[in-house]
Amino acid sequence: MTQETILEIDNLSVSFMTRLTDVPAVMDFSMSIHKGDAMGLVGESCCGKSTVALAIMKYLGGNGKIVGGTIKYRGRDMATMSEKELEKLRGSEIAMIYQEPMASLNPSMRISKQLMEVPMLHENVTKDEAWKRSVEMLEKVKLPDASRIMDSFPHQLSGGQQQRIVIAMALLSKPSLLLLDEPTTALDVTVEAGIIDLVKGLGEEIGTSMLFVSHNLGLIMETCNRITVMYSGETVETGEIQEVFRNMRHPYTKGLLRSIPLPGKNKYDSPLEAIQGQLPLPHERPTGCNFGPRCPYFEENICNKHEIKIKPIEKQSSHLSRCVKIDKIDWTEKNSKKSTKEKIISKTEVLKIENLSKEYDVAANAIFGGKKRGTIKANVNLNFEANTGETLAIVGESGCGKSTFAKILLGLEDATTGKVNFNKTNIGNIGVEQRAKETVASIQMIFQNPFDTLNPSHSVGSQILRTLEKVGDGETVEDRKKRMNELLDLVKLPSEFARRMPRQLSGGQKQRIGIARAFAGSPKVVVADEPVSALDVSVQAAVLELLIDIQEQFDTTMLFISHDLSVVRYVADRVVVMYLGKVAEAGTTEQIFSPPYHPYTEALLSAVPIADPDIEKREIVLEGSLPSPLNPPSGCVFNTRCPYMIPGKCDVHEPPNQDVTDGHKISCHIPREELAKKGSVFALKKE
Fold first, then answer.
1. CATH code of the domain made up of 349-576
2. What number is the average pLDDT over the span 540-548?
3. pLDDT for 223-282, tens place per residue?
4. DSSP-assigned letters across all residues of 26-40
5. Cα separation, 595 vs 23, whole angstroms
6. Closest among 466, 534, 543, 556 to 512, alpha carbons compared
7. Type and span of the H or E element at 21
8. Three-state SS for 420?
9. Using an 8 Å Cβ cutoff, are 64 and 36 in contact?
């Protein structure tokens, strides 16, 4: 690595102009990226990360303005560049990958045209040369059948494929600086692992420097060599990644790490510690330390006495912190929060799934007169049960059948065959309209996206009251209002929130309202479908702890649907791993997270980013995509991606269900003794 400076940001301040006042979004922000550097930029939503990236690209919009400081690219102040020079720079020397791939792709243009215009525009090459380079780049980003992809429209590709197209587009011109703004947030962990491996490899190959914007500390740990932590528009800590993670010197960085479920943590032994309070609004920042009102080490007349500058931890150190109490804080202090939860040992069965299958007959070309039909097998012979008060996690990639099962349980779909026994009554073919009010109230759901589950035209209180009315809770309006206030108190929101509209709530507050509605009818079963995947890590920790506490209070069974095994490891008592509609592995959380693993479980575990410098893991990146459920592979459905596939066996015969230990089952041809020899995915690093 050389010390050639690619990007240098010095005391940058960015404001957005409104009718009333100028709103400061970024203040006194400094950062440098050298050739070959991968800099991670982390912090909660609205802390200014994306604003910094957009300021570099000069994409701040009509009301955004750089009001102080400089941004230099290869030593030249970008403020002195003309619009024509900036246009030439963007896409050729500086490229950006956005969070949502469909926001970067033109839905009306084929992929070929969108890729080819990059070298044609910036390097003036011929169409034939542009086609050749585009196909080569698609192969580099590991997209199979590049010619077919080139001829496709964006909507014909999966989310992971779309994101790889955007990455290919950004890398086609071999940029010196690549900006990545939460590029994997909406993707499965296996797809995320493949894309991160790809970006790291291509970055090393063509010498690209990177600025990686994320709130995922594990992702930053695995991809970057330096880190900058932002809070409320300011840098609060920066340095070499190993130094910052091992010797963090700002309470905010410490708070972020304590919000993450690391390997070995669970709700019984080491509860998560969410950062208290909310990020201050830009025009309501406190005097002195912006983090002061949320900091457990805050001291009056010290932390709020005057403006705090960022300083080196030691002389000549590249590790800097914006904290005046560095020498007074015990940085080795362990988590102060102690768990009061007792391990669930209930044997009272609430839910029993027996040989459940769900099939859909489809005729994709019937609209054009075609007669060929097919069958999608969304769920195939599912067998498992859930007991009172426990959390059963159902994990797997998108398209594995998790949500289809949830729809059957909720009465939104009918089972094709098999049973869904709730309190020993089969409800698999009873639609929600035909179910008794008590049954509807007893099985509720918390949805993935808190932004789309509330009616924007109605107040929070009216939506909770309507739910209470639907489930028959309370005989009068006054009874229901009293119950509504109890529910708001349950999710730790003041009663005044009943008058607020959804647009006035943060993401975490909206999800708390979703939880309040789900528990309105005192349900026996709650289906939580990716309930924290759209939230910041600090908000995620608070919502998880709230959900666990309420579940314990109501003695409710929770089905926790997720693809994030770090969250599952923390929250679940038992786990079912699904792949292409079938159960690949099932057992207690301890059994699932200890060898032997099903090869698919092993790959899911390896894909989870770990924010701990003392833990190393075996890297297993799954090749290929999830096969189509319309045409599943013969034999073991995982054989097309399995690194241990036995030809002539795995691709021909259905795998047997092996009983590993009591209650632990693995559906695999490989003997459990052989699977056990592969050892644990995680291990402590040897000094």
1. 3.40.50.300
2. 89
3. 899 999 999 999 999 999 999 999 999 999 999 988 888 877 788 888 888 888 888 888
4. EEEEEEEEETT-EEE
5. 53
6. 543
7. none
8. strand
9. no
- Per-residue pLDDT of 31-71, as tens digits, reads 999 988 899 999 988 889 989 999 999 888 888 999 999 99
DSSP state of 285: P
Q: Any idea what DSSP says for residue 296?
A: T
Residues 6 or more apart whose CB falls under 8 angstroms from that of 145 comprise none
Q: What pLDDT, in 10s, does the model give residues 322-368?
A: 999 999 998 888 766 666 666 766 778 999 999 999 998 876 554 44
Closest CA to 537 of 188, 256, 230: 256
Structure tokens belonging to residue 493: 């929101």
Parallel, antiparallel or unpaired: strands 94-97 and 64-73 = unpaired
Query: Which amino acid would we find at residue 457?
Result: S
Residues 41, 201: Cα–Cα separation, whole Å: 20
Q: What is the pLDDT of residue 1?
A: 44
Q: In what order do the strands lie in the sheet with 320-321?
A: 94-97, 177-181, 209-214, 38-42, 226-231, 234-240, 320-321, 311-312
Q: Tokens standing for 170?
A: 């950004």
Check for a shared fold between 1-82+213-340 and 349-576: yes
Contact 564, 533 (CB under 8 A): yes
Domain ranges of the chain: 1-82+213-340, 349-576, 594-684
Yes or no: say if 356 and 379 are a contact pair by the CB < 8 Å rule. Answer: yes
> HEC profile for 104-160?
CCCCCCCHHHHHHHHHHHHHCCCHHHHHHHHHHHHHHCCCCCHHHHHCCCHHHCCHH
Torsional class of 566: left (φ above 0), alpha (ψ -120 to 50), beta (otherwise)? alpha
Of 278, 209, 161, nearest in space to 56 by CA:
209
Superfamily of domain 1-82+213-340: P-loop containing nucleotide triphosphate hydrolases (3.40.50.300)
Cα–Cα dist 632/629, whole Å: 5
* DSSP code at position 90: B
Residue length of the chain: 687
514's enclosing H/E stretch is: helix 507-518
Spatial separation of the C-alpha atoms in residues 472 and 438, rounded to whole Å: 8
**Of 683, 682, 607, 676, whose CA–CA distance to 641 is shortest?**
607
